[in-house]
Amino acid sequence: xxxxxxxxxxxxxxxxxxxxxxxxxxxxxxxxxxxxxxxxxxxxxxxxxxxxxxxxxxxxxxxxxxxxxxxxxxxxxxxxxxxxxxxxxxxxxxxxxxxxxxxxxxxxxxxxxxxxxxxxxxxxxxxxxxxxxxxxxxxxxxxxxxxxxxxxxxxxxxxxxxxxxxxxxxxxxxxxxxxxxxxxxxxxxxxxxxxxxxxxxxxxxxxxxxxxxxxxxxxxxxxxxxxxxxxxxxxxxxxxxxxxxxxxxxxxxxxxxxxxxxxxxxxxxxxxxxxxxxxxxxxxxxxxxxxxxx
Length: 294
Known about the structure:
alpha/beta; 8-stranded mixed β-sheet; 11 helices; 8 strands
């Protein structure tokens, strides 16, 4: 029924398929008669082809004291049918009447979450089966942190963690993809959840605001896999660059105040190069001038 868009294999050496997830599911879940420790939020829009594999990666988790909230952001395909094909009382389905964007869908999930920890997964991506167990363990080891994140499977070796790291996060220009991020619900509420004015880079904006207020921990394993399906937002280069521009403009003063003009110049040059790559010469030139002015 579901065609996997992923080319990696599972921890057991088998291809990631609906059948292998079911067969290799580590724990049989017990009835949800107590408050879940973790809420998993999957926002989705017209992803019937990939949603099933994302759901299966959650159901395959070795830690099973969670609820899974799937927020359908106004899909017109068979998304609802896919969700309702699962007979699992941990799954909750919420549908937006009008498509409102990924940030709004994530915020709906946060609003309805019962868990004290909230983890986010896109509907064309997956987790390895140890992800939630590692997340819960990281919070248990570091009860004062507001959020944790893991590395991406076969991705860069992110290393940033600790207290008072806001300036370092701004210097780096990013921290974590949403699919590697897990945060305390109280922390998300304190910083204002996802900013719905972002269509791209909403994860970077959220991480910046979280890092400004909270210490955080890193899980040094690649536990999340990016799918990059044809309608993945990350494939839209122009929208991605516009998202980076919005992020830079909103945090420009904080970058200067916390990191200095050299860091602002670095990010402006980087943005200029991205605009020039997209053949937006005028905007590329504008950010070259900004960098030189620093």
